[in-house]
Amino acid sequence: MDISQIDFQQLRVKHIYFKTKVRALLYGVGFDEQFFSDKSPLSVWFDTTGKQRYAGSPEIIQLARLHQELIFSARALHRQYSNGEIEQAHEAFKSINQQSERFLSILDQMEQRLTLT
């Protein structure tokens, strides 16, 4: 396994963990302000590994932008849940799931492109 495969696996795991933390918000788990910020493990990955090794990749720009959108969506979901808008928060999670699928799809494309070269 080369370094890029390890990098992509780390990114995939961190993203899935992010989505798990979002889902936990729907079950009343406390909101971790730092986790849903530019200090989250996923944001740090983009600022370090992503920028150092994959700065020229168009997919990394898409993934970083999509991650920022996911953070924004997670914060909105938390506000809805906190305001008692439980059904709306569950609907918002469906949108986050779609964004997540898009994230993973772009990551898969990037991984295939870079491992074939």
UniProtKB/TrEMBL annotation:
<keyword id="KW-0808">Transferase</keyword>
<dbReference type="GO" id="GO:0016301">
    <property type="term" value="F:kinase activity"/>
</dbReference>
<protein>
    <submittedName>
        <fullName>Histidine kinase</fullName>
    </submittedName>
</protein>
<keyword id="KW-0418">Kinase</keyword>
